[in-house]
């Protein structure tokens, strides 16, 4: 089967699943944005996904993204960074991405502030939460989150648009639901004292996006269920 047929089938399956999850949780379809998690997928496939209707893509590696974003420069794609960001890559990342979804350290915030000042930019970010408290993963631990957000508020070049998480992988996606519920609770609490721009909750991947939607996700990040296996 060619990529166009495959991606089309995948995309329509995803749309159906999203619709069902929205009905089940009485949410509106327009509240959910699909982000194509395109790491290790070709520009060709990203182009096909874009033409099918996905306008937002996320990349994990600055170098890989740079190449693909250049190849796709004629398409009005919105690119978010969703990987672990090293401070020495911030400068380049700010040229490539309209949002950093993985802010999780003060030294990273400092570097973003510094580079943004130089170029007179305001940088939209999500704060990544390590909701499963996994030592090998990035993200702020839940109990440190409010303090962290309080500190980031002092950086006038950084705009916090919401929260992001990547919970522990579970074969049975129902086992991920408690993490999503926790995220939603934290999100709602913090929302009470942030301005109206704090509104995005980025959670859910190929395996569990319908559950993430049921528990309040506004951005779902889908890789292999859309593009097929990563090469
Ligand atoms: C790879 C990746 C995804 C997508 O994962 P799939 O299982 O392929 O859907 C989502 N979020 C992040 C942060 C990722 O690195």
From TrEMBL:
Instruction: Quote the SUPFAM superfamilies the UniProt record gives.
Output: PLP-binding barrel (SSF51419)
Function, in words: Pyridoxal 5'-phosphate (PLP)-binding protein, which is involved in PLP homeostasis.
Note the InterPro entries from the entry: Ala_racemase_N, PLP-binding_barrel, PyrdxlP_homeostasis
Q: Which Gene3D superfamilies match?
A: Alanine racemase (3.20.20.10)
Q: Which Pfam families match?
A: Ala_racemase_N
Modification N6-(pyridoxal phosphate)lysine, positions: 39
**Alanine racemase N-terminal domain mapped to chain residues:** 45-229
Which Gene Ontology molecular function entries are recorded, alphabetically?
A: pyridoxal phosphate binding
Cofactor needs:
pyridoxal 5'-phosphate
Q: Which species does this protein come from?
A: Thermodesulfobacterium geofontis
Q: Which PANTHER family match?
A: PROLINE SYNTHETASE CO-TRANSCRIBED BACTERIAL HOMOLOG PROTEIN, PYRIDOXAL PHOSPHATE HOMEOSTASIS PROTEIN
- Enumerate the CDD domains for this protein: PLPDE_III_YBL036c_like (cd00635)
Which family does the UniProt entry place this protein in? Belongs to the pyridoxal phosphate-binding protein YggS/PROSC family.
Q: What is this protein called?
A: Pyridoxal phosphate homeostasis protein
Provide the alphabetized UniProt keywords. Answer: Pyridoxal phosphate
């Amino acid at each position: 089967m060619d990529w166009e047929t495959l991606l089309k089938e995948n995309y329509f399956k995803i749309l159906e699943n999203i619709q069902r999850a929205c009905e089940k949780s009485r949410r509106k379809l327009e509240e959910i944005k699909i982000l194509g998690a395109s790491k290790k997928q070709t520009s060709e496939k990203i182009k096909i996904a874009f033409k099918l209707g996905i306008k937002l893509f996320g990349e994990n590696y600055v170098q890989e993204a740079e190449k693909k974003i250049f190849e796709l420069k004629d398409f009005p794609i919105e690119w978010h960074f969703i990987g672990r960001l090293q401070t020495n890559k911030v400068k380049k990342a700010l040229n490539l991405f309209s949002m950093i979804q993985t802010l999780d350290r003060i030294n990273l915030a400092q570097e973003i502030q510094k580079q943004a000042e130089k170029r007179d930019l305001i940088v939209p970010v999500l704060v990544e939460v390590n909701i499963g408290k996994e030592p090998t993963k990035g993200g702020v631990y839940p109990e440190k989150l409010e303090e962290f957000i309080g500190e980031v508020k002092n950086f006038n070049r950084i705009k916090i648009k919401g929260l992001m998480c990547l919970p522990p992988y579970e074969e049975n996606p129902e086992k991920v639901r408690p993490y999503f519920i926790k995220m939603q609770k934290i999100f709602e609490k913090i929302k009470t004292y942030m301005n109206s721009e704090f509104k995005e909750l980025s959670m859910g991947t190929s395996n569990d996006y319908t559950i993430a939607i049921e528990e309040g996700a506004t951005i779902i990040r889908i890789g292999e269920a859309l593009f097929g296996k990563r090469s």
